[in-house]
Design a protein that fits this description.
elongated; alpha/beta
Length: 314
Amino acid sequence: MQPYLSVVICVYNEEGNIFPMIDQVERALIGYDFEIVYVNDGSSDRTLAELKAVHNDRLVVVDLQTNYGQSLALAAGIDVARGQYIITMDGDLQNDPADIPMMVRLAEEGDYDLVAGIRANRQDGALLRKLPSRIANWIIRQTSGVHLKDYGCALKVFRSDLAKNLGLYGELHRFIPVLARLEGARMTQTDVQHHPRRIGQSKYGLGRTLKVVSDLILMLFMKKYLRKPMHLFGNWGLISLMVGLLINGYLLILKLMGNDIWGRPLLILGTILVLAGIQLITFGIMTELQMRTYYESQDKKPYKIRRIYKSALV
């Protein structure tokens, strides 16, 4: 029995691409029971009018109040989706829906929570699209420890429970594989088709590389220290405090020996290190308490059970 699928497509000013995309999805998913969830992210052109003009029982249109950005639009679509598997893709006709059945089969046969696409023969401009993407991919791979080839490919297949627990805020859609790893997801990647954009213009360029770096700082904290923030702030606080105390102890000995230590840069450094150490340790304790409140107030667990297997009774 084929799983029920939800195809989530986020669009911003994509008039002219709506009807062809829906037609492609319909033809690609013959034999599947599915829905198409379109999220209109505050488009200012005729995108919403074209979506309203579509008469299709499978279509669900989520019209956002204003332009919130890709991450929140994606989160809205995933919240509405009802499928066992949720497929995300761009609405500019560059992703090919014909790859979806292959990716769903891979997810089922390999028992994967996430199957990510790799744009093997990418049809984009070298300077404004490929270069920023390669820089961002390299930075994320080297710092996050999650080694996927193409973080920017929107075509992904998720198990529903994983997609609905990703916690997409800000512009964290670029880090979906990292977020998935935080949830303990089993993931793989596969080559998919990629087509040149024929209608409209890309909304992305070189400027997104800096955003990737700033978001990456948050992701690294979430990946390594979300459940144990004291290990970050406490360790650095203790180091700072101990070095500061050693410096001040040395200066105290000099003072007792009759030396003038007032105004020495070393005294200022020692005092700053002691204060910084106390502040970091205090901040670590406060963050640790907030983390515990985060889990306990919502009855969440700091772990996730993926599945429970039971042996068949003989």
